[in-house]
User: Fold this.
Amino acid sequence: MANDASTVFDVVILGGGSGGYAAALRAAQLGLQVALIEKGKLGGTCLHNGCIPTKALLHAAEVADQTRESAGFGVKATFEGIDINGVHAYKDGVISGLYKGLQGLVASRKITYVSGEGRLSSPTTVDVNGERYTGRHIVLATGSVPKSLPGLAIDGDRVISSDHALTLDRVPNSVIVLGGGVIGVEFASVWKSFGAEVTIIEALPHLAPLEDENSSKLLERAFRKRGIKFELGARFSGVEYTATGVRASLENGKQVEAELMLVAVGRGPVSQGLGYEEAGVATDRGYVLVDEYMQTNVPTISAVGDLVPTLQLAHVGFAEGILVAERLAGLKVVPIDYDGVPRVTYCHPEVASVGITEAKAKELYGADKVVTAKFNLAGNGKSKILKTAGEIKLVQVKDGAVVGVHMVGDRMGEQVGEAQLIYNWEALPSEVAQLIHAHPTQSEALGEAHLALAGKPLHNHD
Ligand SMILES: Cc1cc2nc3c(=O)[nH]c(=O)nc-3n(C[C@H](O)[C@H](O)[C@H](O)COP(=O)(O)OP(=O)(O)OC[C@H]3O[C@@H](n4cnc5c(N)ncnc54)[C@H](O)[C@@H]3O)c2cc1C
Assistant:
């Protein structure tokens, strides 16, 4: 096999998604020689099949809702329907602008970009297109793909994954969404706003089951009001084709029919057949195992992003990629506190959180050591103006710091930046209560929740 390089790179990165390209950009910035290998499109899932396209769809959905509800704001407009080609053109325009920008960034940092499918051939080499790329260090960043359930075939037509849903050429009349996690509820929200009948099937007792139970319940209430149906604690047992679509069966005997079914039961790591195990890299159910510095058991190999068993979020991939680049460049790095990572589900209404849930806090500190406070958005002027409902809930260790911020309401994702500073700086409620929030903004609601926790509520109704 030809050795591409006379060059031995400092770092060879396999996979150009959020984790891989962040590692490449930071490593190059620190003066390292970097090769970045990508078989698809630079930017990976987040840019092409994940965060960005879904958020464009959700924004189009918001415009549709606002148009339908415009009379309630005294604005005359008629909602005539969804032009799905127009929606895709808008979404694709956003993606292509960002894609060009990212390609330019990678080129400007003098990163050797290799287009092709790579395979780890030893602890220091990756083979691509018949060439061998050698690095003093290797970073594995091959990401994840949609998972299914045993025996459930995704045909891309009536039973689809999020990848198919993003390019669907129509608004379906009705959809079953299998899985009430982040991806499932976001698509449910979009389709309902676009005019489809939506039923979510979730095996666990709540939608958004990883969130604080209060947030899940508020989301369920809001979805019920919007006419989104859901079956909770309901285990899926099978699907069959009907004359016009699909029929899903549940273990409790219920059946749900729709035009198509989205399978949103999570994503699994891309690690099979890529030479990882042959190179001695330890894995668990396909996930590459790493320590808190993203180092695998093989000294020359690190791994980041959805491929490792941490939170499957783009900004986690960015942070892990940067951490690895800085470590390889000899900088002092600090392990990531994953509880301090902000999490947003961008449906209508949004669910945003940082820190731990009330249940987890009670488990860690004891029930009598945990204090909570809530602020209802009904008491927040800007939320009233926007006609959104919801709540901010805080979890505090008695006489100590705020350890959880849980928010439900439109645009609450935009509040999570302040919430993460509060959590990560271990702020006391009394310290946050000192800070003055601009009126009228939704950020005031976060301030008011801290006023309540500090014992001096302002606009709280008891
Ligand atoms: C529908 C959806 C919505 C999402 N929304 C959000 C959101 O709003 N916010 C958020 O933070 N996260 C969101 N995510 C998650 C986010 O997209 C992922 O966490 C993130 O993309 C993970 O980055 P990564 O680099 O680990 O993997 P990926 O982005 O999957 O990148 C891996 C890359 O490796 C390449 N690759 C794989 N194998 C090889 C090989 N053998 N050779 C060469 N290249 C290879 C792939 O082509 C891919 O480009 C969403 C995901 C989905 C599916």
Q: What stands out?
A: The chain has a mean pLDDT of 97.
